[in-house]
Amino acid sequence: LDRKSAVLIAFATAALGLSACAVQPSQVTLRETAWLSETGLLEALSNEPFVDREALYAAALKSELADIYTSPQALRSELLAGEFLFKAPLLLGGQAAKAGISCHSCHTNGTDNPHFLFPAVSGESGTADTTHSFFSKSLGNQVTDPIAIPDLTKGGKVAHSMESGELEAFLTTIVVGEFSGVKASPRVIAPMATYVRALRLTGSMDQTVRPRSLKQDLEDVRLTVDQAALQADDGKSEVAALLLSSGQSQIQSIHERLDRSSHSVLRDWLTARAREMGMLRRRLNAGEGLLKSDLAGLQERLSSGPDFSQAAHNSLYNPAILANALKR
Ligand code: HEC
Question: Which amino acid residue places its CA nearest to atom 37 of ligand 1?
Answer without folding.
Answer: 103
